[in-house]
Write a structure and sequence with these properties.
Blueprint: H1 2-18, H2 33-41, E1 43-47, H3 51-55, H4 76-85, E2 90-96, H5 125-135, E3 139-144, H6 157-172, E4 179-181, E5 188-190, E6 197-199, H7 209-219, E7 224-227, E8 233-235, E9 250-251, E10 275-276, E11 279-284, H8 302-312, E12 317-323, H9 333-349, E13 359-362, E14 386-387, E15 395-414, E16 422-431, E17 434-441, E18 448-467, E19 472-479, E20 489-492, E21 497-501, E22 508-512, E23 523-524, E24 529-530, E25 535-543, E26 548-549, E27 553-557, E28 565-569, E29 589-590, E30 599-617, E31 627-636, E32 643-649, E33 660-680, E34 687-688, E35 690-695
Parallel strand pairs: 1-2, 1-12, 2-3, 3-4, 4-7, 7-8, 8-11, 11-12
Antiparallel strand pairs: 5-6, 9-10, 13-15, 14-19, 15-18, 15-19, 16-17, 16-18, 20-21, 21-24, 22-23, 22-25, 25-26, 25-27, 28-30, 29-34, 30-33, 30-35, 31-32, 31-33
């Protein structure tokens, strides 16, 4: 009898042990192994460095001489070191841009480094960079423009064969490549071996994309291929540095091709997508992709870079940040400073993970199995996940802290090897016994990060409101990021109203108007205020929680322009000339193109002042024109008889488009005249972003 019971117990135990709960079935398109590996990278560098660097262009025409390419201090190890220190995982280099100049000694064309003075024609920048990436533990990728404005055969089959051979060279001789980047710009005017004409191609068929993909798969099977439509990763549909809040990693891929006109759909993906095609968010740290000295003052602010981080990686995308290497062959010092500031700030935001070890419960667990329990979302194991039962597409997870805990960031990840499925979710916090909604959002995917005002929560709940199938959540992290401390931004309108702002509403602003250094005991900014006379404004951002303050921001403000009027221009639309005195640095006005003589503008200040100087802000557009380089400034009390009080040169103004300040001996004036004696351009057309005066101090 005892023997029979033991046998029965053994059989029962065996049957019980064999009873396993099946994992959820995949939903929709799934990522490949190469795509999963790419998702893990998240943040890496684009380097635009090529012929355009030395011609001060964005798109070269193709007829440039290889002798133009001659960096004086080229150091690819500096690039790799900075990328590594910035937290980036790889570098993609523009091995060939649209002008056709190749950064490696290709056998396919003479238009390459082998005919440049750099290293006496014996250099191979692609090789040097691939080795530097290996040294610093970075992935290496290549950009190879399909469009070639140099090649005489562009538009013919002969060029396509040559292009394929270029791709083979890059994927054969330079080690492992993690990404191959194909641009959507195709066909147009160019040098084309001296023809200097326009050539059009069918960008869907001309390059034989199927063969291109075959070459990549053959030579670099682990590399992902980027283009508007993949086949592995997609453009996000903008170069401004964001993905939409709703961002599916899937798209109806067969509808998309390079130059696809419905590019805005790339920002969100397709909920009913047929292929896994995640978004790469590419933007430049400067306005241009290539280095231009005139943009040295326009490197993206820390606040803008942080915003891009959260709107790319934090919205189910990757962050590809371009570094325009300068003519020396170095990452510019200002760019390096901002890169490292971004790294420091992101490290602060995610310094201490608060969900680890916290009790977490779920409203539904698949088969009540430990394999899919709620605790899997904060166990630190990237291969475990919480899952719900079949048919359960609405469930929640609740984190219960041992004591009320401050939280202002949540990071959520789906287990994407089984597909992307969450359509809508919300986050709530229990504060002082009352539940309050923090946010409601849509997609999650590989990673979603939400920022919100700090709450001191006893519990935090994530409600998954709608999903394509059973929930499969891999990871949830919670953080209490410090306040984002930056110096205030300052703006002023024509009436003299001054507005101060900072990136984080939890940071206070203090200011002085008497030239003294501001502290947290100075004037506290609560609302816009008027400045109606010459004043030195100094401001700081102040974090009351830590006692830290930003660097001081100093701005000189003179008389408001409310009574000013542009009364005469040598050419151009007088009715639009108010833009040069509207206190908006991003607006501008210009005289007519083709002007044959120096152009001038006359402004009525509304009443008479004693002036000691004037200011000129050059046009701030990405493609500036008509910048005044040599000036003549005159004053008048009656608008008819003018006296010249200053003339000269704005030193290096084309390359450094900051506010130009000119001082002169005191002069009485109601009317001022600014003449562009010389301008940067082929004619005398003159442009103005803003003109101001400096009045005598009382």
């Amino acid at each position: 009898m005892i023997k029979t019971k033991l046998i029965a117990i053994a059989i029962f135990g065996l049957l019980f042990s064999c009873k396993t709960v099946e994992p959820p079935k995949p939903v929709g398109p799934l990522p490949s192994e190469r795509q999963l590996a790419w998702h893990d990278l998240e943040y890496y560098a684009f380097v635009h460095f090529n012929m355009n660097t030395f011609t001060d262009m964005e798109w070269g025409l193709g007829g440039e001489s290889p002798e133009t390419f001659n960096p004086t201090e080229l150091d690819v190890r500096q690039w790799a070191r900075i990328a590594k220190e910035a937290g980036m995982k790889g570098i993609i280099i523009t091995a060939k841009h649209h002008d056709g100049f190749c950064l490696w000694p290709t056998k396919t064309t003479e238009h390459s480094v082998k005919n440049s003075p750099w290293k006496d024609g014996k250099g191979d920048l692609v090789k040097d960079l691939s080795e530097a990436c290996e040294e610093f533990g970075l992935k290496f990728g290549v950009y190879l423009s399909p469009w070639d404005r140099n090649d005489a055969d562009y538009g013919k089959p002969e060029y396509v064969a040559r292009y394929h051979e270029q791709l083979r060279e890059l994927l054969t001789n330079y080690g492992e490549v993690f990404e191959v980047w194909f641009d959507g710009a195709n066909g147009g005017t160019g040098y084309y071996g001296g023809a200097n004409e326009e050539r059009k191609i069918d960008n869907k068929t001309y390059y034989e994309w199927d063969k291109v993909t075959e070459i990549v798969r053959e030579l670099q099977p682990n590399a992902v291929i980027f283009s508007d439509g993949g086949p592995d990763i997609r453009w996000v549909g903008t170069e401004e540095g964001f993905a939409n809040e709703t961002n599916w990693s899937i798209m109806r891929r067969d509808e998309i091709y390079p130059g696809w006109p419905r590019y805005k759909e790339l920002r969100s993906g397709h909920q009913d997508g047929t292929h896994w095609l995640p978004a790469e968010v590419n933007t430049s740290i400067r306005p241009g992709w290539y280095y231009h000295p005139r943009e040295d003052h326009q490197v993206k602010s820390l606040a803008r870079l942080v915003q891009t981080y959260y709107e790319s990686i934090g919205r189910n995308g990757s962050f590809l940040l371009n570094l325009p290497v300068d003519t020396r062959g170095l990452v510019h010092e200002t760019d390096e400073k901002q890169l490292l500031a971004l790294k420091k700030q992101i490290d602060k935001d995610f310094a201490t993970e608060l969900a680890k070890g916290v009790t977490v419960t779920a409203t539904d667990v698949r088969g009540n199995s430990d394999s899919y329990m709620a605790e899997n979302v904060n166990d630190g194991d990237e291969n475990s996940y919480w899952a719900t039962n079949e048919g359960v597409t609405n469930a929640s997870l609740t984190f219960e802290f041992k004591e009320p805990t401050e939280v202002n960031r949540i990071l959520i990840q789906e287990y994407i090897p089984l597909g992307q499925r969450v359509i809508k979710f919300s986050v709530e916090a229990e504060v002082d016994g009352v539940w309050q909604k923090i946010d409601e959002q849509t997609t999650i995917g590989n990673k979603r990060i939400l920022r919100f005002d700090t709450v001191k929560a006893s519990k935090l709940r994530v409600d998954f409101l709608e999903s394509k199938g059973p929930l499969v959540i891999n990871n949830i992290e919670l953080y209490r990021a410090p306040n984002f401390l930056t110096a205030p931004d300052i703006s002023r309108d024509r009436e003299g109203t001054v507005t101060l702002s900072v990136a984080d509403d939890n940071v206070e602003i203090f200011y002085t108007l008497d030239g003294s250094e501001p502290t947290n005991k100075s004037n506290r900014y609560t609302e816009p205020f008027m400045v109606t006379e010459a004043t030195t404004l100094k401001t700081i951002g102040y974090d009351a929680e830590t006692g830290d303050q930003s660097e001081t921001q100093l701005t000189y403000l003179d008389i408001p322009k409310s009574d000013w009027k542009v009364v005469n221009v040598s050419s151009g639309k007088l009715e639009d000339a108010h833009k040069l005195i509207d206190e908006n640095p991003n607006s501008s006005w210009a005289t007519e193109a083709g002007a044959k003589s120096p152009q001038e503008i006359v402004i009525d200040l509304g009443k008479t002042y004693s002036l000691t100087g004037f200011t000129y802000l050059p046009i701030q557009d990405r493609y500036p024109f008509g910048i005044v380089t040599d000036y003549e400034f005159s004053v008048s009390t009656d608008g008819r008889n003018f006296k010249t009080v200053s003339k000269g040169e704005f030193g290096n103004v084309v390359n450094n488009r900051i506010l130009q300040t000119i001082n002169f001996n005191p002069a009485t004036a109601r009317y001022i005249k600014l003449k562009g004696v010389m301008v940067d351009g082929d004619d005398y057309r003159a442009s103005f972003a803003e003109v101001g005066v400096i009045t005598a101090q009382k």
